[in-house]
Amino acid sequence: MKTTFKGRAVLPGRLDGRALVTHRGFNTYASFFTSIHEPTGAAVCADSGNPDLFGRNLAGRILCLPRTAGSTSSGAVWLRLAKWDVTPLAMLFSRPIDPLAAGGLVVADLWAGRRIVTVDQLGEDFLNTVQNGDHIAVHADGTVQILNVCG
Amino acid sequence: MHLTDEEKAILNGGQGQMMQRVMATIVTYGEALEAERLVGITGSGHFVIAHAIPGIAPSMEMLDDLIAAGLQTAYPFTVDPAAPLDVDNWRLTESQTAKLRRMYREQALYDRKLKALGCRGPDGYTCTPYLPEVGNTPRRGDILAWSESACVVFANAVLGARTNRNGAIIDLLCNIAGKVPLSGFLTDEGRRATWCLRIKTRARPLPQLLGAAIGRLVLADVPYIVGLDRFLGGGIDADTRDYLHELGAAAAAAGAVGLFHVENVTPEAVDAGPAIMDRDCQTAVIDEDTLADLTASYPVLWHDAAAAPAKCFLGCPHLSRNQLQKWSAAIENALQRHGRRRLAVHTTICAAPPVLQAFAKSRAWRRLIDAGVRFSPACAMQLFDNDLSRDDAVITNSTKLRTYTHARFFPDDDIADIVVTGRLRHAP
Question: What is the pTM of this model?
Answer without folding.
Answer: 0.94
